[in-house]
Each structure stands twice: as structure tokens, then as C-alpha cells.
Design goal:
single chain, Urease, subunit C, domain 1, 2 domains, globular, 33% helix
């Protein structure tokens, strides 16, 4: 099979609502959705009998420059500050090719699993070459053009000077980001980053309040950007989930009015938070249920994968959805929305899915229902980006059958 392969028809696909349909596409757009078997044959069709057709997943919070570095670093397992320290020590040994190779491999693995859009934060480094990661990720974005929509965020710590942030934006990074809650004065750093974004007309995606206690910057962010036209989002927001109900509701109301997108990162925050609690360790998650019920723009990402901030991760948004159900108590539909249409909305991407006029971004996964797909994460998948088949995985499995003649079991009494 030669990929990418243009498609004009997806035949016999089962949608999450139970309908079996034929989906016709013109270029990168869905043109018609018909009952299965209604569409005329096409040389560019893909038969999806036995597959669920889902809106492709999108990851709104990744760190491609850090991914797959765990084995090289072998850091101590622990909290956020320990992870930051071990990463910074490792960056002194990196090359641009090393970063690009790991980032490319990670992005392609995410594509294989069904993710067709990624927003990656990119570190501005200390030392003589602060833009090393930026150059590597701009190169990878160019190489993967046509396969993945890759958006890049400047990740500027409190010690990164404005001139380096401006230089990264000049290089081609798309959004301003940082972690103001780690600054000595979080408000000053928050306002510094927002001022740069305003001056440049850039969107913003900040690491926000990534701890169970400590500074709160989300409310100030929401109030500051209330009249902005740029897209603004906040990742993590763990602290929000620890607040009393009345205080939490006040902040969420302002988040909704300001249109700030909230991005949960369950696997990394569950891993990093709560190590110092001897019992009843709290969940390192934002207030997902309250945010959804209030109508907030809500999404979820995998965040770190196999690096000092998280040694695990399967590069599969179905894993993120599963954790939102198990740890965040979302419904299965809500969880999948957070990693697909919700993620695309927070990233300001065109709406996608199986309806006329929407962008043809699909994950076809073998299964009988959405619950079946999230529960079992089948390996058999087809991934469609902009109306083209860009990845196809088929797995063959054989398991010995049990004996048909069951051995009788004797129960002796006495």
C-alpha cells in the first residue's frame, strides 16, 4: 500500500451513534454521509466494515522535544521540580539532530495511533544555543507537512529573556507559552508573557498552576484576556481542582466568559502530583467535571511521553480518554470528545468529523462501539488526514483454543 493515499469514499463505517454509513469526500472535506451501501463505487474507497469511524484525535499539549529521552537520562522518579532539574542537566548534551529524531519518531507514532494534529511546547534553553529545540521542531514540522498539523508553542521559563522569546517567534513558532506559576512573582511573569503575545498578535498557551498547592494564576489570566481576540488556553490547571467549590466556581465562571481553553493532562499530572502524601493521595487533575458542566472549552492531551516528567505513555489518545474516565469521572463520550473535537476546538482548528462540510480527519478503529474502542484500544486502525489515508495498521493474532473436553472436577466431602 502506497501512502499517503487520496480517498473519496469510506464505505460501511459504523459511527458512535450506531449508524452504518458511507462517507463521501471531496479533497479534504466531507461532502455527503449516506446509509451504508448507498454510495456509488469509487476507485479511491476504503471499506471499513467492522470498524468504528471516529473523528481523528488531536493532542493540544505535547512536548515533542523532550519525548523519548527517559532512557538516556534515567532521572529520579519524583515531583515536578526534580523532573525539571534532570531535564535541564540533559539539555547541555543534546544536538539539534537528536531533538529532531526523537520528535519526529514521537509525532509519527502519535499519527499511527490516530492523532492528526499536535500542539507541542518547545523549550527555550539555557546556555549558548537557546533556540536549538526551536530549530529542530521547525524542521520536523516542515518534514511532516501534509501528514500532521503541527503547531509550536514557545515554552519560556521565568528566567528566559524576552529577546529569546521574540527570536523563537521570528523563527516560526506559533504561540507564546511559559509557566508563570514557577516564577518568584507569578503575576509579573504572567503579564510579561501576555504583553509579548499582545505585541506580536500571537495566541497563548500557558502551563498553569501545575501543583496541588501554591500560586494561582488562572484567574488573573482569565481576567486579563477577557477582551482578547487571540486564542488563549491554559494547560494543567491542577490547582483549580483543589479549591473549595465556591472559589472554584467563581474562577470557572470567569474562564468561561473569557473563552480560555482548559487542557487537562491526566497521565503526567497523575504521575507527578501527590508523591509527598502518605495516604489518600489527591488526584493530580483539573476540575474536569465542573469545567464541562459550566460550558468551558475543554480538551486533554498526553503531555509528556517517556521523559523525565513521565516515564510511560503509549502515544495513544485512547489512553488519555481512558484516564479521563477512570480518574476524572467523565463519561466515555465526554472523554473522547476532549481528545478529538474538543481538542481541535481549543487549538482553533477547523471542525472535523462525519458530517457534510466538515474536515475529513478520521480514526477508524476496529470495534463495535466507542466504549469498546476506548476499553480495548485495538491495534487495527486506519488514519485519514485531510481526506488522505496516512497510516494503516493491521495486526494478526493467533491464540491456542481451550480443550473442548473439560475434565470433571471431583468434590470430596468428609
Amino acid at each position: 500500500m502506497n501512502l499517503p493515499r487520496p480517498l473519496s469514499l469510506l464505505r460501511n463505517a459504523t459511527l458512535p451513534d450506531g449508524r452504518t454509513v458511507d462517507v463521501e469526500m471531496i479533497g479534504d472535506t466531507v461532502s455527503t454521509v449516506l446509509p451504508a451501501g448507498s454510495a456509488p463505487g469509487s476507485a479511491d474507497e476504503l471499506d471499513l466494515a467492522g470498524f468504528m469511524l471516529l473523528t481523528a484525535t488531536a493532542d493540544p499539549h505535547a512536548h515533542l522535544d523532550k519525548s523519548r529521552s527517559w532512557d538516556a537520562i534515567l532521572p529520579p522518579m519524583g515531583d515536578l521540580l526534580s523532573a525539571i532539574g534532570s531535564w535541564r542537566e540533559y539539555t547541555a548534551t543534546m544536538t539539534e539532530d537528536d531533538v529532531a529524531d526523537r520528535a519526529r519518531a514521537q509525532a509519527l507514532e502519535m499519527l499511527r495511533q490516530g492523532t492528526t494534529a499536535i500542539r507541542s511546547h518547545v523549550d527555550i534553553l539555557a546556555g549558548d544555543d537557546p533556540l536549538l529545540c526551536s530549530r529542530a521542531l521547525v524542521r520536523v514540522r516542515r518534514e511532516l507537512a501534509g501528514l500532521i498539523d503541527l503547531e509550536l508553542v514557545v515554552l519560556a521559563g521565568p528566567d528566559v529573556p524576552d529577546v529569546h522569546i521574540e527570536a523563537a517567534l521570528d523563527l516560526g513558532l506559533d504561540l507564546v507559552g511559559g509557566a508563570p506559576h514557577l516564577a518568584t512573582d507569578p503575576s509579573i511573569d504572567l503579564q510579561r508573557l501576555l504583553a509579548i503575545a499582545q505585541r506580536r498578535g500571537s495566541g497563548v498557551d500557558l502551563h498553569t498552576d501545575e501543583s496541588l498547592d501554591g500560586p494561582m494564576t488562572l484567574h488573573e489570566l482569565a481576567l486579563t484576556v477577557r477582551d482578547w481576540t487571540q486564542n488563549v488556553s491554559a494547560g494543567h490547571c491542577v490547582r483549580l481542582g483543589t479549591l473549595p467549590a465556591d472559589e472554584r466556581a467563581l474562577i470557572i465562571a470567569d474562564v468561561v466568559v473569557s473563552g480560555v481553553g482548559i487542557i487537562a493532562n491526566p497521565i503526567t499530572n497523575l504521575y507527578l502530583q501527590g508523591w509527598d502524601h502518605d495516604s489518600s493521595a489527591p488526584r493530580g487533575l483539573t476540575a474536569a467535571r465542573d469545567l464541562i458542566d459550566a460550558g468551558a472549552r475543554f480538551a486533554a492531551g498526553a503531555d509528556n511521553v517517556r521523559d523525565p516528567f513521565n516515564p510511560l505513555g503509549r502515544s495513544d489518545a485512547l489512553e488519555t480518554a481512558m484516564l479521563l474516565v477512570a480518574a476524572g469521572h467523565l463519561t466515555i463520550d465526554e472523554a473522547y470528545t476532549a481528545v478529538s473535537t474538543g481538542a481541535r476546538e481549543v487549538m482553533a482548528l477547523p471542525e472535523a468529523g462525519a458530517a457534510p462540510g466538515l474536515r475529513a480527519e478520521f480514526l477508524a478503529v476496529r470495534g463495535t462501539s466507542l466504549a469498546d474502542a476506548v476499553a480495548t484500544a485495538p491495534a487495527d486502525r486506519h488514519v485519514i488526514h485531510a481526506g488522505r489515508l496516512v497510516s494503516s495498521t493491521t495486526v494478526r493474532s493467533e491464540t491456542a483454543a481451550p480443550s473442548r473436553a473439560a475434565h470433571p472436577v471431583s468434590i470430596l466431602e468428609g
